[in-house]
Amino acid sequence: MERWCVIKYMSQNQRLSDKIADEILTMITLESRFLPGEQLPNENELALQLQVSRTTLREAIRILVAHGVIETKRGRGTFVREDFKLNEARSLTSLVDEHINIKDLYEIRLIFEPEAAYYATLRATDQEIERIITYGELIEEKINENEDRTEAEQNFHKAIANATHNKFMDRLMPVIFQGINQGVKLSRMKQSVLQHTIRDHQLIMDFIQARNAEGAKSAMKIHILHAMKDMGIKEK
C-alpha cells in the first residue's frame, strides 16, 4: 500500500474513532444512560450497539480515557469516572474545540435555536412546558441573587431542545452549552446583558406557554441577537 493511502486510511479511521467517542460522551452527558461510577456495556455489546469494529471502539475508549471521562478497571470493565462532572462536559470533536471562534458558536445557535423553540412550542407536553418555565424562573432567581446561573441556563435551553422531540438536537447541545458558557462569563461584567437575559427569557416562556410557535421562534432569535450584540459579534 502506498504511503499516501496509509495516511488517508489512518486519517479516516481516526475521524471515525472521534465520532464514536462523541457518541459515547452523548450517551453519558445528554442521554444519562451511564452515570458517574456506572459501568459501560462489554466491548462486544457496545461495538454491536454502535455498529463499529472492536478496534474502532477501543480507540474511542482510549480517547475518552485520555480526556478523563471514563476509566478501565483491570478484570472488571470500563466505567464512567466517579469524579466526572456532567455539567462541565464538552464535545470532543473540533466543532467545539476550545479554540473555536465565538462568532461561529453563536451563528450555529442562531441557525438552530429559533427553530428549536418553534417546534418545542408545537410538540411540548404540558410537563415539558412546566420544566422550561421552572428553569427560566430559576435563571432569573440566580441573576437576582448574583449567583452562577450556568447550569440553569444550560438546563433551560436543553429543556427546549428536548421538547422538540428531535433526537438530533442532542448532538447540538455541547455546542449550545459552549456558547451559553461564554455568554454567562460576559454577563457577569455587564448589567445590560443580565437585563436582556431576563426580558428575553420571559418573552420566550410567554410565547411557549401560549403555544405561539412563531412568537417563540422570534423571541429566541431576538435573544441570541441580543447576546451577539452584547458580545460585540456582528451578524453579517
What would the average pLDDT be, to the nearest integer?
82
- What pattern of helices and strands is seen along the backbone? HHHEEHHHHHH
**Morphology call:** elongated
Distance between the termini: 47 Å
Taken as a percent bin, the fraction of beta residues is under 5%
Tell me the CATH topology of the largest domain.
Four Helix Bundle (Hemerythrin (Met), subunit A)
Query: Any idea what the radius of gyration is?
Result: 20 Å
By oligomeric state, this entry counts as single chain
Q: Helical segment tally?
A: 9
SS content category:
mainly alpha
Number of strands: 2
What top-tier CATH class of the largest domain fits best?
Mainly Alpha
What is the domain tally? Answer: 2
Strand order of the largest sheet: 1-2
Helix content: 55-70%
Characterize the main sheet: 2 strands, antiparallel
CATH architecture of the largest domain: Up-down Bundle
Which regions have little confidence, pLDDT < 50, spanning 5+ residues?
1-14, 93-99
CATH superfamily of the largest domain: GntR ligand-binding domain-like
Features:
two-stranded antiparallel ribbon; mainly alpha; 9 helices; 236 residues; 2 domains; Four Helix Bundle (Hemerythrin (Met), subunit A); Arc Repressor Mutant, subunit A; 2 strands; elongated; single chain
3D architecture notes:
With 236 residues, the chain is mostly helical. The chain folds into two domains: 3-88, Arc Repressor Mutant, subunit A (Orthogonal Bundle), CATH 1.10.10; 95-230, Four Helix Bundle (Hemerythrin (Met), subunit A) (Up-down Bundle), CATH 1.20.120.530. The chain has nine helices and two strands. Strands 1-2 form a two-stranded antiparallel ribbon. The longest helix is centred in the N-terminal third of the chain and has 27 residues, at 3-29. The chain is elongated.
